[in-house]
Amino acid sequence: RTFRIAAIPADGVGKEVVAAGRAVLDALAEDSGGAFAFRWEEFPWGCAYYERTGRMMDEDGLERLKDFDAVYFGAVGWPTVPDHISLWGLRLKICQSFDQWANVRPVHFLPGVQSPLRKADDTELDWVVVRENSEGEYAGLGGRNLSGRGQGGEVAVQSALFTEVGCERIMRFAFDLARTRAHKKVSSVTKSNAQQYGMVLWDDVFKRVALDYADVETESVLVDAMSAKFVLRPEDLSVVVASNLNADILSDLGSALAGSLGLAASANLNPERRFPSMFEPVHGSAPDIAGQGLANPIGAVGSAALMLEHFGLPDQAARLNKAIEATTAAGILTRDVGGTATTEDVTKALIDALDT
Ligand code: NAI
Ligand code: MG
């Protein structure tokens, strides 16, 4: 079968890592002897597009995306455009319009990659951060009192939205995922000591949903304590479910602990499959290294593996993940993980490793 994929490389290293991911996926399809194929369409949206047209994406952009099997995304954001405009105009717009309410972010060690946590060889790190991706702190609710602007008296309100439906579906998603794993545990990240409405609802729903999953171990941890736990007791975690902002912060921490932000993969899922899901590395556009061949493509390629799983091709996803491990184990590493290989070197090595 042919899968139709919309590629949106967008900005900075997004362009380099999407090109890498496409090359690896095309090599995989070529190898399949026609069992499956990918048909790509690339969209030129992003900050450069905004500077030309005043829009981050076309007016009918969502309409054009909605019949694809998936969206393969790079990263959005460039210093010439305010970040809240670029993020809301493209990435958050797609996530919210296509009801991609579950953001799945696996974090694990890779062979040959140094981690600040890997003191002893037996330290384990194998988590999935499950991020609520439709509401919470990124609901976009609030406003600025512009009348006082420039006079030192301005006030801004940024509200978080928590609904019972929104909390329950992400928690059930986390519990269902935990059941498929060796370590059957869900850790809920909260801040209900200080945030006495939304986060208390979050906790209540977590306790209620947990009753339906007696076979899964649970804990509820304050986000500040959880950030310490990430560093001090990584082997104690399996599935970590958190609100939009908390999970955003914790997953960058998690990927840094695994070795680099450039390694981290993610899937923005519409679990009902009414709309396409979107697959993208966790990292941003990295203006500091963009255009120099320094970007680590592994986060983007790992995201492609999540896309293959979503397509119902788990064996191909596993093949891709094995190729990633073979490449890092062989010491073919970009600068962020201590090597000297270019994006292209790693991409070539990944393609060669598909055969092993
Ligand atoms: P960033 O993730 O782009 O970069 C943070 C650090 O990680 C930088 O030192 C960068 O060089 C490094 N890094 C990131 N990706 C890498 C890769 N593939 N290989 C090697 N090193 C890598 O975050 P930053 O600097 O805070 O944001 C830059 C821009 O990206 C901003 O405009 C921001 O809004 C946007 N952004 C977009 C995201 C998205 O599209 N999903 C997510 C995060 C940030
Ligand atoms: Mg982030």
UniProtKB/TrEMBL annotation:
It catalyses: (R)-malate + NAD(+) = pyruvate + CO2 + NADH. The keyword Oxidoreductase applies. The keyword NAD applies. Keywords: Manganese, Metal-binding, NAD, Oxidoreductase. Its EC number is 1.1.1.83. Pfam families: Iso_dh. PROSITE patterns: IDH_IMDH. Its cofactor is Mn(2+); Mg(2+). This is D-malate dehydrogenase (decarboxylating). It comes from Streptomyces graminofaciens. The lineage of its organism: Bacteria, Bacillati, Actinomycetota, Actinomycetes, Kitasatosporales.
